[in-house]
């Protein structure tokens, strides 16, 4: 217990890094995921194929392998970034595939009449998607996106295997230095994750409640 | 499918889309060529980088890696199924003495990163070894996730079914075993298979605690021959083909079950800590 309290600063620093990875990954995953989802429903066949290929390959690849490709592969191309940036790229590009699928199924839940009305008013594909369908789809995909982002929060822990000392990495470091306090450290850091997951689910439920529209 | 989003492209739009595709294609091909050229510059495509893959020993190592990956996945899934059933029964129990502990266990293990569980077991119980730590982590995490899948499946069976069964004089156990479970299993099957893909992918976390599964085998190969790019390509192809076949099976089962029940009900899923990501 004392060791847990003595190292509270280190543990909080670890969670700070976890949150940085989470924030960076969220932005990347949502942006890339939205673009890919638009590609998957677009009128241009090659865009649809490219989107589908990305989703099918990435969803079936283990996250650790994505990390290896980015952390060891990009430097081979002459791209050298910090481990933290690499980790954000890895969790972001991985999670984007799942965001794409959630958005796509959300787009499919929007009533056909909405898109038909938009088209009959003369809106183009881009306008139909961005001004009529996506805003409605976004509401119905808030719960699945919330689940995906919670999973991403947990997935940032894989960065611990690739040179980033975030919360899970802190457990490994402190667990080696203080093996006698391993249980305290584990349950302390686990409690941190539980709190973060709870906060995220409450936030998404609130967001859903505010945005939900009866149709 | 979602052609409702746009009018059938006319001649002008088709021409524009074709020109765009060609330009986009050229850009993509250009990027790929740039990447290959850079890799070529560093000698990643010289014959000797691929030579290890002409050696049967390399393939033997990869086969052993696949075997160890499948071993961890199968043992993990089997134990997780048992744990998941126990926890689901616990969460559905009418006694709060049983319900509360089961709820706490499920919520705890779903909220903690799997890698952290595996690290902890690896450090706390050295006797388990890397295989034991990996399987224990997979079991506890996926047991908790499966428990929620089972519970949701049972609760999704229309209430009239259990009411009818009770009114026929069946006991609680019989209602569960003969009425609810058979119907729930059919609905849960796609989610179960998807979870198998997740477990298979998660066995790669063994890489971090030096369990020689497929990914770590790949690492040993490229550390030995300095041929990271060819090895990563081979390993990725193996993972994607195994997982894509399982995902395809899940889709097939989902389509089959949907036909049988005549249109799946629209389920409003709440925010879930154990998403299959």
What report would you give on this structure?
The complex is a heterodimer of chains A (215) and B (277). Helix content of chain A is 81%, strand content 0%. By secondary structure, chain A is mainly α. Chain A has a single domain, classed as MetI-like fold (Orthogonal Bundle), CATH 1.10.3720. In chain A, helix 2 (8-40) crosses helix 5. By secondary structure, chain B is an all-alpha fold. Chain B has a single domain, classed as Orthogonal Bundle (MetI-like fold). Chain B contains ten helices and no strands. In chain B, helix 3 (56-92) packs across helix 6 (129-156) and helix 4 (96-111) packs across helix 6 (129-156). The chains are: A mainly alpha (215), B mainly alpha (277).
Q: Which assembly state applies to the chains in this document? A: heterodimer
Average pLDDT confidence of chain B is 88
- Return the CATH topology of chain B: MetI-like fold
**Uncertain runs of chain B:** 262-266
Biggest sheet of chain B: strands, sense, closure? none
Biggest interface pair, residues each? A-B, 72 and 62 residues
- Determine the number of helices of chain B (DSSP H or I, runs of at least 4 residues): 10
Helix content estimate of chain A: over 70%
Instruction: Provide the CATH architecture of chain A.
Output: Orthogonal Bundle
In the CATH scheme, the class of chain A would be Mainly Alpha
Shape of chain A: flat
CATH third-tier fold name of chain A: MetI-like fold
**What is the end-to-end distance of chain B?**
25 Å
Helix-and-strand structural type of chain B: mainly alpha
Count the strands of chain B?
A: 0
Q: What is the straight-line distance between the termini of chain A?
A: 52 Å
Percent of residues of chain B in beta strands? under 5%
Spell the H/E element sequence of chain A: HHHHHHHHHH
CA-atom Rg of chain B in angstroms: 24 Å
């Amino acid at each position: 217990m004392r060791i847990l309290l003595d190292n509270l600063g280190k543990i909080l620093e670890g969670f700070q890094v976890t949150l940085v990875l989470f924030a960076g990954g969220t932005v990347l995953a949502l942006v890339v995921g939205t673009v890919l989802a638009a590609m998957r429903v677009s009128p241009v066949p090659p865009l649809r194929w490219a989107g589908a290929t990305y989703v099918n390959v990435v969803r079936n690849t283990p996250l650790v392998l994505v990390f290896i490709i980015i952390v060891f592969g990009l430097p081979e191309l002459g791209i050298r970034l910090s481990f933290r940036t690499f980790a954000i790229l890895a969790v972001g590009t991985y999670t984007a595939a799942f965001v794409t699928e959630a958005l796509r199924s959300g787009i499919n839940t929007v009533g056909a009449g909405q898109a038909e009305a938009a088209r009959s008013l003369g809106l183009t594909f881009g306008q139909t998607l961005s001004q009529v369908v996506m805003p409605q789809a976004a509401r119905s995909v808030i719960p699945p996106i919330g689940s995906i982002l919670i999973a991403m929060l947990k997935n940032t822990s894989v960065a611990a295997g690739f040179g980033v000392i975030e919360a899970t990495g802190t457990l490994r470091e402190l667990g080696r230095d203080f093996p006698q306090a391993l249980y305290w450290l584990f349950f302390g850091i686990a409690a941190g994750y539980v709190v973060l997951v709870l906060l995220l689910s409450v936030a998404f439920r609130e967001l859903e409640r505010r945005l939900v529209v009866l149709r | 499918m979602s052609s409702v989003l746009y009018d059938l492209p006319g001649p002008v739009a088709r021409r524009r889309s074709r020109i765009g595709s060609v330009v986009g294609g050229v850009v993509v091909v250009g990027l790929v060529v740039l990447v290959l050229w850079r890799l070529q510059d560093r000698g990643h495509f010289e014959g000797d980088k691929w030579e290890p893959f002409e050696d049967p020993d390399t393939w033997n190592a990869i086969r052993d890696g696949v075997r160890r990956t499948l071993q961890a996945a199968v043992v993990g899934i089997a134990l997780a199924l048992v744990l998941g059933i126990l926890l689901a029964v616990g969460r559905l129990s009418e006694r709060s003495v049983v319900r509360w502990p089961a709820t706490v266990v499920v919520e705890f293990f779903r909220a903690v990163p799997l890698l952290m569980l595996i690290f902890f077991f690896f450090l706390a119980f050295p006797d388990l070894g890397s295989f034991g730590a990996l399987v224990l982590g997979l079991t506890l995490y996926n047991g908790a996730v499966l428990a929620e899948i089972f519970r949701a499946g049972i609760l999704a069976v229309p209430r009239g079914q259990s009411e009818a069964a009770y009114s026929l004089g069946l006991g609680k156990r019989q209602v569960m075993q003969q009425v609810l479970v058979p119907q729930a299993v059919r609905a849960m099957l796609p989610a179960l298979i998807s979870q198998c893909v997740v477990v298979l992918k998660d066995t790669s976390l063994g890489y971090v605690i030096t369990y020689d599964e497929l990914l770590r085998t790949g690492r040993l190969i490229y550390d030995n021959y300095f041929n990271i790019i060819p090895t990563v390509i081979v390993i990725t192809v193996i993972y994607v083909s195994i997982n894509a076949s399982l995902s395809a099976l899940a889709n097939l089962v989902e389509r089959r079950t949907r036909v049988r029940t005549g249109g799946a009900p629209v389920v409003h899923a709440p925010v879930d800590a154990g998403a299959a990501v």
